[in-house]
What does this fold into?
Amino acid sequence: MALRGRRNRTRTTDAPPAADATPTTDREDDGHREDDSHRGDDGHRGHAGRLGAYAGRLGASAGRLGTPTEAVRRRLREGGPGPGPVLLALAVTWIVFQALDENFLSPRNLSVLSVDIVGTGMIAVGIVFVLLIGEIDLAVGSLAGLAGAVFASLNVHLGMPEWLAVLVAVLCGTAAGAVHGFSFARIGVPAFVVTLAGLLVWNGVMLYLLGPDSSVNFSEDGLVATLTSRYFDSAVAGYGLAALCTAAYLLVSLHDHGRRAAAGMPGRSTGEIWARTALLALVSFSVVHVLGRFEGLPLALLIFLAVIVASDLLLRRTPYGRQVLALGGGVEPARRSGVDVARVRISVFMVSGTLAAVGGLFIASRLTSASQISGSGVLLINAIAAAVIGGTSLFGGRGSTWSALLGVLIIQSIGSGMALLGVQPPVQFMITGGVLFTAVVLDSLTRRSAESRGRV
It folds into this structure.
């Protein structure tokens, strides 16, 4: 998000400029500028002519920027390649594993994959918030394990109702995130150090709660277990939901297009909007069709997508989201523009801790038990890798919550394909590490390119 300071004032003359003329600027104070109010009708007509010329040029610019080709070029110039490379990598991954094992793209395997991505994906969404301000949270894996341990201890050992145990577990993640954020924003402890300490502390608390057995089993028919075992097998409901989501996207996009056109701002063309809508419809109906051939739409996947959409709207369409992106563009410019830096930093770590706890409950639901596996270092690495591989910059200011979905799809697809082929875990780690390294290199090159153009 670019922060704009005070604009230079524009001096006008009585004669309207030509269509290709550009306005000249000076730095005179408002008191020294000419006042058009004494010019009479000729001055008003000249002023209207100039506004018409400027509006015409803005409309032409909007038309040029609205084409798909120009949209891609604009993304590259602004320092981001967009989701294209990630989608291409995902397509190549699926094609390769399908060629090696025909069961990879079977409805059963894709259904299992759609549920397996949720736990890690939830944590990755929280990581995206932290990365957007240019920081890192190393405690999310331990917080995920702690949430599962808190829930199991309260529900199984103390007999607390499941819904209340879930609420307490999630609030524990929120409180831990607040501690991290306060230590970083108010006391000045580097985020890397405070979250590394949190990784050790919360992991120790998790092991203490789990006891000598290092695991606690809970009911397979309870609320938490239902999160990953519930499916909606109604075709009418599935296709209806896909149609509703597609229609909502189209209406919102056309509404935004109308507002931008009325304001003379560049934006997507109607052709691009319809193309995106058609692609969304194709993907949505294909997902419903494929998953419906096994058990139906998983509840876990629907909750995950709802969280992604809600967090994306929060970042792109609210003042808070704009403050987060502004902080990623630079602390001092954000502060001078009125952003409460400390408050935003604390809130971002609270979001990360909360989603880490939610992700931990989904992982525990998949296992129907709380164990130290949920708080392992592999979970932390996969969550951070998912956010970065999906397109969120490690340097802050660029990314979206959808990158968490794309990144975790790539990571879990690699894991699923390797499992079908019988490849040992060490090889999976090496491949995942290679993909992460490639994503970081591309991120660094993209930032360097943006810096060379003066956009960072």
